[in-house]
Amino acid sequence: MIKTCIIGASGYTGAELAALVHGHDQFELAALFVSANSADAGKSLGDIHPQFFNRIELPLQPIDEANLCALAESFDLIFLATPHEASHKWMKQLCSEKSANKAVIMDLSGAFRIKDKHKFAEYYGFEHHADKLLAAAVYGLADWHQEQIKNADLIAIPGCYPTASLTALKPLQQNALIDTAHFPIINAVSGVTGAGRKAALNSSFSEVSLQAYSVLGHRHQPEIIDYLGTDVIFTPHLGNFKRGILATITVKTSANVTERQITEAYQQAYQDNPIVRFRNSWPKIDDVVGTPYCDLFWKLDNKTGYLVVTSAIDNLLKGAASQAMQCANLRFGFETHAGLVN
Amino acid sequence: MIKTCIIGASGYTGAELAALVHGHDQFELAALFVSANSADAGKSLGDIHPQFFNRIELPLQPIDEANLCALAESFDLIFLATPHEASHKWMKQLCSEKSANKAVIMDLSGAFRIKDKHKFAEYYGFEHHADKLLAAAVYGLADWHQEQIKNADLIAIPGCYPTASLTALKPLQQNALIDTAHFPIINAVSGVTGAGRKAALNSSFSEVSLQAYSVLGHRHQPEIIDYLGTDVIFTPHLGNFKRGILATITVKTSANVTERQITEAYQQAYQDNPIVRFRNSWPKIDDVVGTPYCDLFWKLDNKTGYLVVTSAIDNLLKGAASQAMQCANLRFGFETHAGLVN
Amino acid sequence: MIKTCIIGASGYTGAELAALVHGHDQFELAALFVSANSADAGKSLGDIHPQFFNRIELPLQPIDEANLCALAESFDLIFLATPHEASHKWMKQLCSEKSANKAVIMDLSGAFRIKDKHKFAEYYGFEHHADKLLAAAVYGLADWHQEQIKNADLIAIPGCYPTASLTALKPLQQNALIDTAHFPIINAVSGVTGAGRKAALNSSFSEVSLQAYSVLGHRHQPEIIDYLGTDVIFTPHLGNFKRGILATITVKTSANVTERQITEAYQQAYQDNPIVRFRNSWPKIDDVVGTPYCDLFWKLDNKTGYLVVTSAIDNLLKGAASQAMQCANLRFGFETHAGLVN
Amino acid sequence: MIKTCIIGASGYTGAELAALVHGHDQFELAALFVSANSADAGKSLGDIHPQFFNRIELPLQPIDEANLCALAESFDLIFLATPHEASHKWMKQLCSEKSANKAVIMDLSGAFRIKDKHKFAEYYGFEHHADKLLAAAVYGLADWHQEQIKNADLIAIPGCYPTASLTALKPLQQNALIDTAHFPIINAVSGVTGAGRKAALNSSFSEVSLQAYSVLGHRHQPEIIDYLGTDVIFTPHLGNFKRGILATITVKTSANVTERQITEAYQQAYQDNPIVRFRNSWPKIDDVVGTPYCDLFWKLDNKTGYLVVTSAIDNLLKGAASQAMQCANLRFGFETHAGLVN
Hints:
The structure is a homotetramer. The first copy, chain A, is of the alpha/beta class. The first copy, chain A, has 2 domains: 2-158 and 319-331, NAD(P)-binding Rossmann-like Domain (Rossmann fold, 3-Layer(aba) Sandwich); 160-315, Dihydrodipicolinate Reductase, domain 2, CATH 3.30.360. Chain A has 11 helices and 14 strands. Chain A has helices at residues 12-22, 45-48, 68-74, 84-94, 118-124, 131-136, 146-150, 160-174, 220-228, 259-270, 317-331, and strands at residues 2-7, 27-34, 60-62, 77-80, 104-107, 138-139, 154-156, 185-190, 211-212, 233-238, 245-252, 276-278, 294-301, 306-313. In chain A, the strands form 2 sheets. A 7-stranded parallel sheet of chain A has the order 3-2-1-4-5-7-6, with helices on both faces. A 7-stranded mixed sheet of chain A has the order 9-10-8-11-14-13-12. The longest helix of chain A has 15 residues, at 160-174. Chain A starts with a strand and ends in an 11-residue tail after the last helix. The model of chain A has no long low-confidence stretch (mean pLDDT 96). Chains in contact: A-B, A-C, A-D, B-C, B-D, C-D. The A-D interface holds A 182-183, 185, 187, 189, 209-213, 215-216, 231, 233, 235, 237, 239-241, 244, 246, 248, 250, 252, 282-287, 299, 301, 304, 306, 308, 310 and D 182-183, 185, 187, 189, 209-213, 215-216, 231, 233, 235, 237, 239-241, 244, 246, 248, 250, 252, 282-287, 299, 301, 304, 306, 308, 310.
């Protein structure tokens, strides 16, 4: 059994991770931690996330920031479901080379996703000072970077929007099917859990209503561009639902691209992948909520060469916790979908 | 024109009041105020409530607590859409007998609704120190207390749940149709705007899901009991919608009460009332949202003598702003529904 | 492996059953059937319920009404997730004594729930003609009738509202804690899936809004009364959510009943029951959606003797499919929660 | 007073029209009609749309298809809120030149919106046989075609999506700010009322969840292209809300276009227009629901030349009924926003 803990288990992603680890044959959910100054410290998981009441009743222990090395020595696997700056601050201790740290780290924050450290000031609001770790971190896009993930000790789990976007776009880009002179246009709508578990006026029930936000400046745009290898325009929206992301992507295809080439590109990428599903109709958000799937459907307009692809995921699962679990499976030698699909 | 201002116009109720006054032929929306330490001070109404953008662009002026008398001298009518304690604290200045204060005050908080000042500590969390004003305040149940309202200078607008409940129960109680040995059971579900415009985890979109709260201890229970004149059990619920209240009320009727007696009691109470509607089917929340109506429908079980009545209102209108407007109409000599129904 | 089929797998309950059987170690999901004249006949489960796309891809076979005996001979266990009249019509063949029928039948319709056959005309709109089967059927209230369920061949799975209501009320009734001169008042709100998977104006998205319905005449009222053993007033409501039921129950307790007696009654009933959870706060619908739990929380008003209990379930799981699975577990010798809670 | 009737008043758009005409000083709501074989014939408006119960209690009269001329002779203004084929079929009688028909017709269906009659077979599923009327019909884009509308007798009210799209795009196109080698990409999400008031599985509450539909083939795409004068890619989505449309439009601007040029284009188009609002933040659906406004906000990415504009309307008002009322105001000599904004 892989001895596992979760730091940041009071949030929505942390709770989903707890459920996945708890339900997995090969991983042991050994401890849950929260920031020492969290109001949730000392409570049990079921107090905060009542769907787990009486089922996963581990306490949320306050983390000892001064002694994170001890954690990295005690556990085989640590999930960080923490704010970006907390991950950035704590990672040096967790990954110290001087100690006997052995834990594999899966960071679900954005602190180690993009490689250009200068972009952190612009998009994340803090200066990045962990050059070596940033260079070492592997981007955990689980359906693409499997060999690197298998050998990594620090894995930066992709953001929710990049996961939905890259799953749809990478097969096209890899096969040179995109006319990149026309940027792919990604319009995506996310459920409100994407904003995290917190009190905020703009995620108040009374205020939420479909709306674009962070237009032309969202931090997931450089992440998508980095791992796609070409420019895109990404416009996120907040939707009036709790979970899920639907990304609608419009692409100008290269000259003379056929429906068949597109289908083959997708098949080649995901032929035997149990997580990416080629649907036979346009996916709905609710088709994937509570599942680890990424559902794809597409249509090419032969007259104009424009292609529309939609991609649907559960933002907390494929967009966070279940993709992290895919990475953990890969890293520890199990099938990518173990514990996720039966 | 009745020169009118609203204190607390940044909240949902205040905004509805602004729209009603703005649209009324006989009232002039002369000024909007918010607490001086509100983050909204200085903004315009349309910035905060964009449905009024470019339409009601009055600024939200910071109120000068030290000089409330000046307000009461300058305006004919002041609506207080303020927290309970703010109303309690400010009322003495607003209603000072020593000055030339002339404004009629409509208080939409709970600070002057119940007559027993000792209940404020228990239900509202503060000690009430304004005995004289509490005694003078008229309870603005607009379909019942019309004569008192016409002559009052301080009118305490009823709570949203009491409005829905009393409209349904008072005709029965007045006609001795209730077997009061069995307490009427009021189950009501309110939209989230009832919690006010604020950041709070339990009104976050991701957290809201139908749930009972404040069971057997909600502050509207004593208010209902006071103005009904008999005990009730009142159980409020938070629903996953923005606006509206549906109250489902179960009453054991007195011996041998007939359907006809019930119908007559309701007709007698609301015969020509343009605001209370006798529906021919069970009302939905959305039938009344955005309207000043209280919709009623009922059914008597002849075998057992139990009667079920449901009562639907918009919590921000009939449960607050439009009932306040009914009171203002009555107080200044207009028809009760002027500016509300055309 | 218990060879299992589901008749009526195109509906919401049937799909949930398919998922539970598919995920259970001891049961084999061998076949899915739908009515021969269903537009869904010949499609796969994943076409209709895309959350199961690529995962449970069994075809929905048209059922041969003329030869139901063959089904009952081929399977160990048959779930009927069919309309009331279809269950009533088909049951004689499925349970024929003359053939070698061996299948245990779990009927999720209402056709065999209540014992007084005369009530079917009144509440279900058809005459009941299967006296012997009606007498033989065991009511599958899984947390209460375990011994009978273990030995039954025809099990009538309770309705969703009765499950939520009886779980809350039976411990009180069994311990004589209810002053039955005052009928318990049950107000419950159900998600729209309770109306089944079908086109209907009143379950159209544009029309749904919280509303009472079937007041004082819903078919679940006699079912609750029968299995509780005392009268109740039951008022159902349609809520603007997909899944879940919240029942708010108000009870006048017998003279001098204490909080402690109530707690003991509940503990005695459900002490080691992994499905009924005693919560420490008022349950929300979303706390139980997607789970097999029934969550309870209660409060007694010592001054008046009124008790409020709320009970939350997923209408498609504890209110249908997972309770049927509990019954199947009991009938075939497994733990009641096998395959439901890990 | 302009004597007005509405044909098709049982639908959502018809009901909104009824409310607008009823509330307008200059128009008289003289009669409501529905198809003779409608189940709603004979009911009153308030039975079907309870928000108007006791307020607009006109009966829904069955229309006499054989004698539509009589209608056109009796009324000054007829709104057709009817299916496309019904409008097409009835229009010849309503607009017959031989009779004394005097009514101005506002058709809210799509039957007279696009000028190329061959597209009706492809996009609407019927052959168009009214060439002369098609040629004569004026497209009622009320903020653009004011002179034509003032003189027209048959006005084809634009579709909901084209209204949102054209309001955002026409100022850019008119000023040659679009690099039309890159098609503008329109992604729009509509509330479920856009599908009409009817029973249908895909608009059932239990089934609705954010989803693209009619991708690359929706009938509003040719309408947008016709009145914009350049190609676009339009992808509609169904959202989980009742009312409203949010269109997110991505445009590659012509070389060297500046933020200032864009602002000037919009100001020039809508400077004193009380219906089109330039917001100072990204509009939400709920900011415009229940209002006649079209809210715009935009941002230019100087580095790449891509511009994102979002446009929000109420699909039943600015996308149908209130735009029809704007046209009626223009046609009968009133201010465009009379009866719509106070």
